[in-house]
Amino acid sequence: MSSIARLTGAAVAAGVVAAAIALPAVGGTGAMFVSASEDLGIKPEELKEPPLAEKTTVLDAKGNAIATFYEEYRENVALAEVSDLMKTAIISIEDYRYYDHGAIDIEGTMRALAKNLTSGGIAQGGSSITQQYVKQVLLNSATTDKERNAALEASYARKLKELRYAMAVEKKYSKDQILEKYLNIAYFGAGAYGVEAAAKRFFGVNASELTLSQAATLAGAVQDPNATDPNLGKSHRALLLNRRNVVLNRMAELKKITPEEAAAAKAKKLGWKATALPGGCGASPYPYFCMYVRNEILSNKAFGKTKKIRTQFLNRGGLTIQTTLDPKMQEAAEEAIKKHVHASDNPVASEALVKPGTGEIKAMAASRKYGNSKRKHEMSYNVVANAVHGGGIGFQAGSTFKTFTLLTALKQGMKINEGFTVGQGFRAPYYSSFKNCKGENIADPTFTVTNDEGGGGFKSLATGTWGSVNTFFMQLEQKVGLCNVITTAKSLGIERADGNPLQEFSTFTLGINEMDPVTVANAYAAIGARGKYCEPMAITKITDRDGKVRTYKPECKQAFDEEVADAAANILSGVFTKGTMRGVGGIGRPAAGKTGTTDAQSTAWFAGFTPDLAGAVSIGDPRGAVTHKLNNITIGGRYYGSVFGASVPGPIWKDTMMSALKGTPPTSFTPVDSARFGGCGSSCAPVRPQPDNDDDALEEGGPGDTNVGTTRD
Question: Which residues does the UniProt record annotate as the domain Penicillin-binding protein transpeptidase (predicted)?
Fold first, then answer.
């Protein structure tokens, strides 16, 4: 620095000191101060104090905390909730004349001035606690690098600006109020912002419980929290220990404690507990549901126009988020999965539960824990949900999609026992026999869809569904129209897990699209709600830091006639007694559902519902379902030659529902409108049980149709 620059800086600093000398002890504005400050242009300037970043807490439906989000982990506390030892320690080391001066400490400033003039720059602070609070507010308010640099700039211009703000702060608040604000905004290191978070992080106690040694440690940490961050290693902890002792010596020097008390405190070890700060979905007992909630807020414009605004809303807002998760149902899903699939198995089972008529997600569970450890077989994405909510590409849903073709046929007026004769194989008779929703011909007359064995003869809507006969559903889809089936599926919220457009090919009804359990469970929940479809929802209420409450209600529509849903439920309930799930059995109350298995057992599903709860279970290998099929494989300690919808997903669903609904009175399905659906069309045959020739095993692990061609584009 040049001599001229030093003299200029000295002159400015001298002016600051001159102005400061005129400041009354409590920060008022006397006549001498007014004269001096006007000469230098130093006047109080209102400081904008945006709310401090506070942690957001997520609650389950019962009010239990299940997750925490934050940008800065902070828990604001009143000054009365901070131990007197902590207050004494921080004032002793940072601003021992705090209660005796105004916005600036004259002695401290002159002491710093002398040091700075000899060093040619700003080598020593001398800032009062009020000035330090101002600096922290400016730093926390900065949204750009330019603003952050300005808040940290080593210049007299910044000091003057801080002084003007400090003068206004001293006029606005009492000394105790300023101290409280400072203790809540200060960074102590190790990711802890504010004295309450620091007390918990460093020592596992509340700020009100801090001992002398602990208080001195935290007071010493604020000077350079990065250099003394105990979480960074032994050398940093040694520096922190040294700073603690400096604080204790200063407290003794000021006669705030006795030399004996100081010596006893210095004899103690640092006491660093490294208490983990709660936060993020990895620390949640329900990580997949946690990820769903987090991504719902970050992706939904209802919570802010831009992702940046939504991120700040979540991580800085100090929110309390009430959710739909039911801990009892969550436990039921977790235990059922654990019973049938091990975390160490290559295939992953996942399940979602949804309450019909509300869209409320009650549980999200998977066979693997959430995390990044391959050695521990952890999942790094939300396998239960779609990509928008942190998921991956999903798994082909197989014959669970036949339900959408069934619904379309019922919507068009087909009777339960109406159908047609089908063969062992189905081939489109001509190129225009299937059209997608763009009106394009997408049929392939050279390609044949087959059943595994048998499956020919007359099939009605009921028997074709119970047997899950591929050739019947191909012919049924052709009859009702491919685009109409796709439209039905979309009306129930069906979208690909990866967010790409649905693949609109003739084998749509065989489940060629990759799905996630939340989406499939929610679609089936609409049938349980008699055609009332509701958007999936995980958040019911958000309370902000000021206590303002915003509630969220289901967004629902009537997707199709109630009578259509009743007829579909009637048919799908037969899957348990006459169809692909009869080897597994029912759940002791009215229930309906559909198994699903894809080409050569790449993936397997079961989706089902009662009027009170719906659920969907999938299983597949995340390494690649097509190349790692579910054949000749051990899952959950049990060997399977081939895995079908009734082999693993069905039993998981059954066990889950029996436990989740325990204590809930059974609700019956509404009887079928026989006048509309009970008669026969021109092609009719008596309803009768089907042989084991479907796409899903009638007996657990037994043979079934392989849905040949379901992965063909």
Answer: 353-620
The 3-state secondary structure of 187-230, one letter per residue: EEECCEECHHHHHHHHHCCCHHHCCHHHHHHHHHHCCCCCCCCH
Cα dihedral value 99, 104, 106, 111, nearest 10? 110
Bridge partners of 396, per DSSP, are: 514
Give the length of the chain: 713
Backbone angles phi, psi at 509, to 5 degrees: -65, -20
State the pLDDT confidence band at 705, using cuts at 50, 70 and 90: very low
Residues 483 and 508: their CA atoms lie apart, in Å, by 10
Q: Report CA dihedral (538, 544, 549, 553) to the nearest 10 degrees.
A: -20
pLDDT tens column, 70-107: 988 899 999 999 999 999 999 999 999 999 988 777 66
CB atoms within 10 A of CB 158: 16
Question: What does the CA dihedral 564, 567, 568, 573 come to, rounded to 10 degrees?
Answer: 160
> Against a cut of 0.90, is the pTM above it?
no
- CA 27, CA 50: separation in Å to the nearest integer? 23
Residue 383 CA to residue 377 CA, distance in Å, equals: 13
For residues 88 and 257, give the distance between their C-alpha atoms in angstroms, rounded to a whole number.
10
Instruction: Assess contact for 598 and 661: CB atoms under 8 A.
Output: no
Beta-bridge partner residues of 457: 422
DSSP at 530: T
d(CA 507, CA 484): 14
Compute CA distances 31 → 22, 172, 245, whole Å: 8, 19, 43
Q: Which residues pair with 605 in a beta bridge?
A: 596, 618
Q: How far is CA 231 from the centre of its chain?
A: 27
- Residue 100 is given by DSSP the state G
Please give the structure tokens belonging to residue 301. 């414009």
Q: Read off the pLDDT band of 118 (50, 70, 90).
A: low
- Strand 532-534, strand 56-59: pairing: unpaired
Place of tokens 């002084």: 163
Q: Are 21 and 107 in contact (CB under 8 A)?
A: no
Residues 6+ apart with CB under 8 A from 235: none
Tokens encoding 187: 């960074």
Residue 217 three-state SS? helix
How far is the C-alpha of 485 from the C-alpha of 442, rounded, in Å? 15
| Confidence bin at 142 (pLDDT 50/70/90) | confident
Distance CA 170, CA 673 (A): 77
- Sign of the torsion formed by the C-alpha atoms of 450, 451, 454 and 459: negative
Nearest partner of 71 among 86, 84, 85, 53, judged by Cα: 53
pLDDT digits (tens, 9 = 90+) for 445-495: 989 998 865 678 999 999 999 999 999 999 999 999 999 999 999 999 999
Closest CA to 57 of 71, 48, 67, 49: 67
- Report the C-alpha gap between 613 and 259 in whole angstroms: 68
Half-sphere exposure at residue 492, Cβ-oriented, CA atoms within 13 angstroms: 30
pLDDT at residue 535 greater than cutoff 50: yes
